Amino acid sequence: MFIPGWILVVFIFILIDYFLQKRNVSILEKERDSLMMKLSPYLIKEEREKADKELFAMEEEMFKDVKNSKTKKKKK
After folding, report:
1. pLDDT, tens digit (0-9, with 9 covering 90-100), for 29-63
2. Would you give the DSSP letter of residue 1?
């Protein structure tokens, strides 16, 4: 069975292109992962600060509710 040369060349170029793209994607994924590892302490710190602010706001609301309930009892 004879395969024309140009079809063989095109097929080889398609294979080369496929493997190069696959390699580039894996390189990009590795770079992304390394960047996330570098940034993770900062992201964790920001999340912790955000959670602390939310907790502080909740504590203030609870304190106000308790204070209001005490003043209502005194008025009665």
Report:
1. 888 888 888 888 877 888 888 888 988 888 888 88
2. -
- Residue 4: how many CA atoms within 13 Å on its side-chain side? 3
DSSP codes, 26-65: HHHHHHHHHHHHHHHHHHHHHHHHHHHHHHHHHHHHHHHH
**Which residue's entry shows tokens 């080889």?**
12
For the chain, the farthest-separated pair of C-alpha atoms sits apart, in whole angstroms, at 103
* Tokens read off for 32: 């992304």
What pTM value is reported for the model? 0.40
Would you state the structure tokens that stand for residue 5, as one six-digit string? 């040369």
Which DSSP category does 3 fall into?
A: -
Helix (H, G, I), strand (E, B) or coil at 4: coil
Report the alpha-carbon distance of residue 54 to residue 44 in Å, rounded. Answer: 15
